[in-house]
Specification:
The strands form five sheets. Strands 1, 2, 3, 8, 9, 10 and 11 form a seven-stranded antiparallel beta sheet that branches. Strands 5-6-4-7 form a four-stranded antiparallel beta sheet, with helices on both faces. A hairpin with a 5-residue loop joins β16 and β17. α1 packs antiparallel against α8, α2 runs parallel beside α3 and α12 packs antiparallel against α13. It is built from 23 helices and 18 strands. With about 775 residues, the protein is of the alpha+beta class. The chain starts with a strand and ends in a 26-residue tail after the last helix. The protein is flat. It is found in: Membrane. Component of the A-type ATP synthase that produces ATP from ADP in the presence of a proton gradient across the membrane. It is a multi-pass membrane protein. Belongs to the V-ATPase 116 kDa subunit family.
């Protein structure tokens, strides 16, 4: 990236803005108003009018749901009468929208009335019979008839009552006792505040009261009239929606094209807000790709000639902390380093003089030009197409700085592998690929399509590990067919360790997870070492190198023979010749160096421990505070055991689902088998008393159990599929963000957003 400055008289500013906008190349820097004699510029005349029209257009697009409509992308140019057409569309759409709002409100009121009168229609009692009595109380509502009658029987204030029930609706007529009537007669305020004896009686149970509608019609007639009104309103709504759809078809492209044009106009008109301006001159700065500086210069010279100064201020590299680590010297005041550039104009000189007044605000690097607006260059993430979807996961943390390594490629290489390792099933993997393909192809949102790409890669690695484990939807049929019957391979498939006879695999996967963590963290510290090389070899060795020494020193010691008796056996048995992964590794030797007397005992200092201590001392000298976290080299690696835990958890869930449906038995050798192709009786007939049926399975328990079992089988595997995202996906992301990124990555970069607008012009008119 190159920092460029454009200085000229205010009179040519609109032309300069239009030229830069058409190039769609310069990431403009924001002037903060700190230079003496310079203020932020004012919007170009017409900005307010364009902004107001743009708001109108976007409001119309929202009303017409253009964002969800299948309207072709805007093309062409606007006709001369576009303002008149916009006003006509605005007037008509607003009228229809107002009508629609009024009708929807009336429809809501009608539906509310229907809901209130429907219970009375169920009873079949005229509404005028449910009110107006002085000697009895009447209440209509919904509740349990048995509970209601029990409460009415127990009520001391009720002399007699009658109930009328239809469906869930009940009408109650109750006569209060003489004492209650006498109290009402003596009250001065009338009956409104004296309550209803039925209400008082039912206060302790669940009862929904319905107010009697105010109408002279019968309930059924009133409901019929309301239903007719509802149908009429719905018909009018449909007509309005059809009319709006017609406007969307006829004027949708016009509105989208107008939005594009007005957006461009507003961008141009408000650009001076980012410039530094005085009474007669302006200064604009921004970032361009270094190889595009010549094109920028040529375009501006063709537009305004020699009446402005175009200067490449710097081509700088930044270290990870945002400091300039290198700046190429660019001769001040000469575009593209051209010593024969035209002399400055009076306006240029004025701008330079006025800019000099604020020189105390500038920064100078390596003897190069002044960097007047101290912003860092924006970031362009340039990754291979296969890794592009993973940029969304990096940006979820923070966009990389211009000075940093973009970790996307490392995320692409490790995240799908972690996910596939934890799920490892061909069936689930195929579903993940299908879901990812749907997300990537059926949505317009860049975020969703990127997540679809991530899902595809995660699914592919799930399929890969599924072949290694020989599993498809938790069944080992794939391993038997592929590895044993076809390829005659004895080592594969690998067992996940759920069966009692394969328990060593369960612990073995924890060891594998630890080794994956050691490798992953080594990559992180090596990347940190590389980035710290910008400060010098000493800084890289003392800081990043210390962590590398501690990490590898302590873990080589943990896998070494020293103090083996106090370490778990599975550390040394996992890769032994008779272990679950038989590669012949039983631990590192002691590599003893010197015996140190410690009172009555002795301590053997081994090479791995010495490496760890050297790294710790280096870190202590470099950063005493950070040395307190030295044990992170152990704790962070242990975090990766969550991969082995998720692997066993997800496999266990699939195992239970299959066990419930198929059933299972254990043969005389202790091997576990699902009853996929045999009835439970097969076990006794084939093995005798040496085998044991663990569960018959719903599949073999009758028709009803078979149907229920199929539901459990499908729903169960769908649950495992969903939890694979929320557990394996989130755990893999956590390991990347918390354990890996923290070793070398800070983020906080700005996105490269060039001032301009992509457009497709044709001869069409709208």
């Amino acid at each position: 990236m190159s920092k460029v400055s454009v200085t000229g008289a205010k009179g040519i500013m609109p032309t300069v803005i239009e030229t830069i906008h058409e190039l769609n190349l310069v990431h403009l820097s924001d002037y903060d108003g700190s230079w003496e004699g310079f203020d932020n510029g004012n919007p170009i005349e017409g900005a307010d009018d364009a902004s107001e029209k743009l708001v109108t257009v976007r409001a119309l697009e929202s009303t017409l749901d253009l964002a969800d409509a299948e309207t072709p992308a805007p093309r062409g140019t606007l006709a001369d009468n576009w303002e008149q057409r916009l006003e006509e569309v605005r007037t008509r759409v607003n009228e229809l929208d107002d009508q629609r709002t009024e009708i929807r409100e009336e429809l809501r009121q009608v539906e509310d009335r229907i809901d209130r009168v429907s219970p009375f229609a169920e009873l079949g009692i005229d509404l005028d019979l449910l009110s107006g009595y002085e000697t009895v109380d009447i209440l209509v509502g919904e509740g349990s008839p048995g509970e209601i009658e029990a409460e009415l029987d127990a009520a001391e204030d009720i002399r007699a009552y009658e109930t009328f029930t239809s469906g869930d609706v009940i009408a109650i007529v109750a006569a209060p006792t003489d004492a209650v009537e006498a109290a009402v007669d003596e009250s001065e305020s009338g009956s409104e505040d004296d309550g209803n004896v039925i209400d008082d009686a039912l206060v302790g149970i669940e009862f929904t009261r319905y107010d009697v509608p105010d109408t002279d019609q019968s309930p059924s007639g009133y409901v019929a009239e309301l239903e007719e009104r509802k149908t009429d309103l719905e018909s009018r709504l449909t007509e309005i929606d059809d009319e709006l759809e017609r406007i969307e078809r006829e004027d949708g492209q016009f509105l989208l094209q107008l939005e594009e044009e007005l957006t461009i106009e507003v961008q141009r008109a408000e650009a001076p807000l980012q410039f530094a301006t005085s009474n007669r001159a302006f200064i604009a700065e921004g970032w361009v790709p270094s190889d595009e500086f010549g094109r920028l210069t040529t375009a501006l010279r063709n537009a305004v000639g020699d009446s402005l100064e175009i200067e490449e201020l710097e081509r700088a590299s930044y270290d990870r902390h945002g400091a300039h680590s290198h700046t190429e010297e660019i001769q001040k005041g000469t575009p593209e380093g051209d010593a024969d550039a035209p002399a400055q104009t009076d306006a240029d000189a004025t701008a330079d003089d006025e800019a000099a007044d604020g020189e105390k605000q500038t920064a100078v690097t390596d003897g190069g030009s002044a960097v007047t607006m101290g912003d860092e260059p924006p970031t362009i993430q340039d990754n291979p197409s296969a890794a592009k979807p993973f940029e969304v996961l990096v940006q979820a943390v923070n966009r990389p700085k211009y000075s940093e390594l973009d970790p996307t490629i490392f995320l692409f290489l490790t995240f799908p592998a972690f996910f596939g390792f934890m799920i490892g099933d061909v069936g689930y993997g195929l579903l993940y690929v299908a879901i990812g393909a749907y997300m990537a192809t059926q949505f317009d949102s860049k975020g969703i399509t990127s997540l679809g790409g991530v899902a595809i890669w995660a699914g592919l690695f799930t399929i890969l590990f599924g072949f290694i484990y020989g599993e498809i939807f938790g069944l080992h049929v794939l391993g038997e067919v592929l590895w044993h019957d076809t390829l005659h391979v004895d080592l594969l498939p690998l067992n996940k360790g759920l069966e009692p006879a394969a328990a060593d695999f369960a612990l073995g996967w924890m060891v594998v997870s630890v080794i994956a963590g050691i490798v992953h963290l080594n990559i992180g510290y090596i990347l940190d070492f590389y980035e710290n090389m910008s400060h010098g070899v000493k800084d890289a060795v003392m800081h990043s190198g210390s962590w590398l020494l501690m990490l590898n020193g302590i873990w080589i010691w943990i896998f070494s023979a020293q103090a083996r008796g106090s370490k778990p056996d599975f550390l040394f048995n996992t890769f032994a010749s008779d272990g679950p992964f038989p590669i012949g590794f039983t631990g590192f030797p002691e590599w003893g160096l010197v015996t140190i007397p410690l009172g009555v005992t002795e301590f053997l200092l081994t090479a791995p421990l010495l490496v760890f201590l050297i790294g710790f001392v280096m870190l202590l000298v470099t950063d005493t505070v950070e040395a307190v976290e030295a044990l992170d080299v152990i704790v962070n690696v242990f975090s990766y055991t969550r991969m082995g835990a998720v692997l066993l958890a997800k496999a266990g869930m699939a195992f239970v689902v299959n066990l419930l449906f198929f059933g299972a038995y254990r043969d005389p050798d202790g091997a576990f088998h699902f009853l996929r192709t045999h009835e439970p009786s097969y076990v006794a007939e084939h093995y005798g008393d040496g085998a044991e049926v663990i569960f018959n399975g719903l599949m073999h328990s009758g028709t009803a159990a078979l149907v229920g079992g199929l539901v459990i089988l499908v729903v169960g595997h769908l649950v495992v599929l969903a939890l694979g995202v929320t557990s394996a996906g989130l755990q893999a992301v956590r390991l990347e963000y918390v354990e890996f990124f923290n070793k070398f990555y800070e983020g906080g970069g700005a996105n490269y957003e060039p001032f301009g607008h992509d457009r497709n012009d044709t001869e069409d008119h709208y």
